[in-house]
Structure formats: C-alpha cells, structure tokens
Amino acid sequence: MQPDRLIQLMTPDEAARLLRVTPATLATWRARHTGPAYVKIGHAVRYRPSDLEAFVGRRRVGTRAQA
Questions:
Q1: Least buried of 28, 39, 46, 64, by fewest C-beta within 10 Å?
Q2: Model-level pTM?
C-alpha cells in the first residue's frame, strides 16, 4: 500500500457522517459484524472509503421498473 493511501482512512465519526448514520450505529454494526469492513490500528477503528462504497453497493435494492 502506498503511504498516501493511508491518509484516506476515515474515523468512525467521518464514516458515520458519510453514511448518514450515527457513530453509535456504526459501533453496533461492528459488534454485530453487519456493518462495513474496518481496520483496527491498535485500539483505533478506521474505515477505507472503498469499503464504505462496497458496503453501500451491497445494499442496493432494485425495483421492477429497473428489471
């Protein structure tokens, strides 16, 4: 991994704002293993933007009109 890509790691507060959920919701998802993938660095939790995008993409629901 290139060092400049590490700068893109987001805190839980930043990720929560991006997903428009509360940091507590992200914490609950982590505990239940249902949320986006995350990185642990020591005790710190960080999110990669690509993991947040993949998480949202997996939750896309199509409609009959799109079929």
A1: 64
A2: 0.82
Of 13, 26, 23, nearest to 55 (Cα)? 26
> Residue 25 is which amino acid?
T
Residues with Cβ within 8 Å of residue 40, at least 6 apart in sequence: 46
Confidence of residue 1 (pLDDT cuts 50, 70, 90): low
How many residues comprise the chain?
A: 67
Rounded to 5°, angle at Cα 13 from 3 and 30: 90
Instruction: Tell me if 44 sits within 8 A of 12, measured CB to CB.
Output: no
